[in-house]
Amino acid sequence: MPKNIGSERLSGFLDKDTFFTGEIKFNNTLRIDGTFKGKIASSSSLLIGETGDVNAEIETGTISINGRVKGTINAKNKVEIFSKGKVTGMIITPKLLIEEGAFFEGECKMKDSNATPELKRITPPLEEAKDEKNNEKKDKK
Questions:
Q1: Number of CB atoms found within 10 A of residue 74's CB
Q2: Is 129 helix (H, G, I), strand (E, B) or coil?
Q3: Element of type H or E holding 97
Q4: Strands 3-5 and 8-14, how do they pair?
Q5: How many CB atoms lie within 10 A of CB 123?
Q6: Reported pTM
Q7: Rg for the chain, CA atoms, rounded
C-alpha cells in the first residue's frame, strides 16, 4: 500500500538490507535505502536515502540524493545532492542543487527545460515567386 511523504505518494521502497539488480519503472515516488544496480526509469521522483547505494542508468523527473549514486542521471526537472550525498558520473538536468559537504565527481550538462526552439520564417515558394514578379513589374515602371 503506497504511503504519503509530504505531498508526494510513495509507490515503492527498498530498505537498507535489500539488494536488487535489474530494471525499475515506477509512478509517484520511489525511495532506495538499499543497494540497487541496473536501470531506473520514471517521470516522477526518486529519493536515495543515506544508506542507499545505486549504480545505475537513471531517467527520472526529480532525484534527491543523500546516499551514493554512480552512473548516468538524466533528470527532466531537478537533481538535488544533499550534504551526505555522493555522486560519481554524468548528470543531465535543467536544475542542479549541491549542498555544502556533498561530493560530485564527473560531468554535468545543463539543459534549459523552458527553452523554445528558434523559429525562422520560411517563405513558401509560391510567395517568393509572387514577390519576384511584383519586383519585376516595379522595375519596368
A1: 17
A2: helix
A3: strand 96-98
A4: antiparallel
A5: 10
A6: 0.74
A7: 24
